[in-house]
Amino acid sequence: MPPVRRSTPSMPQPVAPFPLPWAFCASVLLAAALPSTGLRAQGLPAPWPSALSAASPDTPVPSPVAPTVAPPRPTLPALASDPAQARAQWQRANQRVAEFPRGHMDVLRWEQQHTPGVTPPTTSATPALTLATALRLSLRHRPELFTQPNMNALERAAVQRAHIDHVRQLQRAWTQAIASGQHLQLLTEVLQAATTGAELGERMVQTGNWSQAKLLREQQVQAQAWDAWAQAQQDDRAARERLARLMGEWAADAADRLGAQLAGQLPVVPEALTPGEGLCATDVEAAVLRSDPTLAWQRTQTQRQLDAVGSGQLDAWRHAVDAAVATGTPHSPHTAPDIQDLPLLRDHLLARAVRAEANLLQRAAQRRSMAREAWAHLQAQHARALHAQNTVAHLGTQLEQETLTRYNGMLQSTWDLLASVRQRLLALDAAAQARRDYWLAQADWQALLAGGDYTQADTASTRTTGAAAAPQGH
């Protein structure tokens, strides 16, 4: 199994459970610091990325990224056909288990503790890549996002909107990269627990205490856990590559270097949610309207054009529109309404005023609708994140503790304990993904408040393994 680059997530902080054997497997952290282009105490690196080197096919690159390891191919243990050999095999297996008070669990733990070549986890002294640092690095190769003194109001507003959109994309990529790393870490542990269950099942078959059908069920759980882990590994790579592209990192190992700099988990979700500093829920529409960089200018221009047209002309136009809509739409909804008043249509001042008023109304309606939708979405994601963090993850931890107590009292089996461990990890993963969705919604909301537009992006659904539906006992 490939090494995991981040430390084990700590959400929430449960009582330390019984140390399972898979916890002793190699889970080495990739803590290599960035090379000469690395961060200097959260500052900008000294050399700029070379566009000429990036565009040259002759630039040497390291070896390609290692492909995903091949999935395990479970096999049923071979049973001796001769009765005497079968009896001797059964006796050796049971004598081996009898040397340990907890049976198979302690056998695997002892073997993994005494397996040579296991590297202890290491930690990195390199500071985490913050969002502010990532933004500063990304802006160095985006000259179109800088305003200049010779720009007029519309040109400056266009640059401001492009800058807001870039910040939003970078914040979402940074959030996804951290969340995908934590998702991979948790599913790695789920796979380790499922692999332990399959290994114990093989020993149960060898000792004659299990049928091969029960072993096949454990191997099916392992296969499903591997598939989910492989998908999480692919998603983690894609998320880091997206962040690297936005930051202008072009080297082949840029995603790995960025991954080593990312934090292990996203910031904690605040208990209380507010629209922003000095804002309340009733102010969201007004705040979003005020933040639009061109809406005030557009409103002023529309007012001037409407003032240049007589009220009688405006009333005549509105009457003509109502008549055309009432005449044509009910009978032929797919045919455009028709206005026959040629003198009214040839009034150019009226035409400009009507068009300006329509554009202003559409923009204002869009901004108000965006404000309501984005704020409602943020509230929903905040509630989901708190529920997953305070309830779902807590229930998973409590279930594991209760199962451990019953396991220590020999009331539940090893496979019950492994199943509860998988359920706890999946509950933590659900909480982590809900936290990710909240921060993605927060990024969209902040961009809208800054003057950008709101387009709710689809968030990757939380993937779970078949471990949650695994057999609970033997």
In brief, what are we looking at here?
The protein is mostly helical. The protein has helices at 51-55, 83-98, 104-113, 131-139, 153-206, 212-246, 254-261, 284-291, 295-307, 311-328, 342-345, 348-408, 414-450.
Strand content: under 5%
Largest sheet features: none
Secondary structural class:
mainly alpha
* Low-pLDDT regions: 1-42, 114-123, 459-474
CATH evolutionary superfamily of the largest domain: Outer membrane efflux proteins (OEP)
Helix content: 55-70%
Walkthrough of the structure:
The chain has 474 residues and is mostly helical. The protein folds into two domains: 21-32 and 98-113 and 126-309 and 347-469, Outer membrane efflux proteins (OEP) (Up-down Bundle); 313-346, no CATH class. The chain contains 13 helices and no strands. The longest helix is centred in the C-terminal third of the chain and has 61 residues, at 348-408. The protein is elongated and about 110 Å long. The relative contact order is 0.14. Residues 1-42, 114-123 and 459-474 have low confidence and may be disordered.
Which features characterize this protein?
2 domains; single chain; 474 residues; elongated; Outer membrane efflux proteins (OEP)
